[in-house]
Amino acid sequence: MHYIPHTDEERRAMLAHIGVERIEDLFTAIPEKFRFPRLNLPAAVTEMEAMWELGALADANADVNHHACFLGAGAYNHYIPSLVDHIIRRGEFFTAYTPYQPEVSQGTLQAIFEFQSMMSALTGMEISTASHYDGATAFAEAALMAMAITQRPKVIISRAIHPHYRQVLRTYVQFRPNTEIVEAELANSIDLIDQHTACVCVQNPNFFGQLEDVGDLANRVHAAGGLFVTIVNPISLGLFKPPAEYGADIVVGEGQPLGIPLSFGGPYLGFFCTRREFMRRIPGRIVGETVDREGKRGYVLTLKTREQDIRREKATSNICTNQGLMALAACVYMSVMGKHGLRQAAHLCYQKAHYAADRIGKLDGWRVWTDKPFFNEFVVACPAPVKEINDYLLDEHDIIGGYDLGRDYPELQDHMLLCCTETNTREEIDALVEALAELA
């Protein structure tokens, strides 16, 4: 039974006050044939019966926790300490809303400030925003910011950047005049840099899990007056040097590995870090620490123009909010793990992926890419179509296989991207290898 707060008399009074007789009169702007369509709905049931039906549907879903999962490609099955869920479900925090009113949102604002501080420390950059919708939108915003800072139209992006990220960037700029998006192999990117280049964009580890040799790339970009944008996996920074140390100007990525479940694809968390000199150019929000009139510490949204919300043509970006709860989850995760815990998680991912790659590489008919070092993902050339392999793994062994690279790279038909995280046991990896051996 629905809770209806107004009586019939109160509704009549409200309708009379606005000058109409019936609720139906409020819909006169809608063509009559569309106002109240007949819906082919089943008969009403009680709440108890509805719960039975929903429970039966839920039971039919495959439980990922009962399957060994080797699928990554941008979203990863990491272990999430129980404390993360307990804290974000507290009533003080359990909202996705951006805390515009600092006087009633000090706890949430402080948590976001701590998130920014930890992301800056993790990436080595000087400032961080209070997050974006996902890694792809953060990347697109980074390219737009680079074009705005340099007043140049050309963006060079590596083909080894996640295909979805590249697609989102093209969506952002499709109606932007004179913008040039150039995709190239990383080795060829240096030769494409010229006086029109706003930025060069690299993913490290790249979409194939490989660690890129960026070498002197940042210096070459800077010498030409452009910016260097990097996309990173935050867990990998538990092992490898932060991008600030190899010259990155803007660092973005997907924060989902930091305590956020897979959740069928979202909501996720895009992080955005950059240098202090660009802090008034950043998209989205940033929380600052200050003091009130009594000298007490407080937190506010800062360095953010009002035009960003209400005047598109004056805005640095039209992103002004996102799932604040996801930033809180990442903040709690990083606090609980600490630098040693994050390093341990990264080390486990690295070691397990290399153990799996070594065993698979010894199978007849299977070839693992070993031309570059890799983190927790690696490419395998398969003796059969990837879809057939994945169907077999799932149906016969309860194993979720890898990503079919042929979907995005036509030249990589029958190539699979496999991922290992700290959640994969040795027994699961051995079971995967044995299952693949049956297909050779």
What proportion strand?
A: 5-15%
Largest sheet composition: 7 strands, mixed
Low-pLDDT regions: none
Task: Write down the Rg.
Answer: 25 Å
Number of structural domains? 2
Give the SSE order as H and E letters: HHHEHHEHEHEHEHEEEEEHHEEHEEEH
| CATH fourth-tier homologous superfamily of the largest domain | Type I PLP-dependent aspartate aminotransferase-like (Major domain)
Q: What would you call the shape?
A: globular
List the strand order in the largest sheet. Answer: 2-8-7-6-5-3-4
Which bin fits the share of residues in helices? 25-40%
Distance between the termini: 59 Å
Query: Which CATH-level-2 architecture of the largest domain?
Result: 3-Layer(aba) Sandwich
Q: Give the helix/strand class.
A: alpha/beta
CATH level 3 topology of the largest domain: Aspartate Aminotransferase, domain 2
What's the total number of strands? 15
Number of helices: 13
User: What's the rounded overall pLDDT mean?
Assistant: 91
Top CATH class of the largest domain = Alpha Beta
Could you please describe the fold and organization of this structure?
The chain is α/β, with parallel strands linked by helices. It has 2 domains: 66-79 and 338-439, Aspartate Aminotransferase, domain 1 (Alpha-Beta Complex), CATH 3.90.1150.10; 82-333, Type I PLP-dependent aspartate aminotransferase-like (Major domain) (Aspartate Aminotransferase, domain 2, 3-Layer(aba) Sandwich), CATH 3.40.640. It is built from 13 helices and 15 strands. Strand 5, helix 9 and strand 6 (227-231) form a beta-alpha-beta unit. The longest helix has 38 residues, at 324-361.
